[in-house]
Amino acid sequence: MLLLALDTATPAVTVALHDGTDVIASSSQVDARRHGELLLPAVHRVLGEAGLTLDAVTRIVVGIGPGPYTGLRVGLMTADTFGLALGVPVHGVCTLDGLAYAADMEGPFVVATDARRKEVYWARYADSRTRVTDPAVARPADIAAQVEGVPAVGAGALLYPDTFPVVHEPEHVSAAALARLAAERLGKGEELPVPRPLYLRRPDAQVPKNYKVVTPK
Question: What is the CATH topology of the domain spanning 3-94+173-187?
Answer without folding.
Answer: Nucleotidyltransferase; domain 5 (3.30.420)
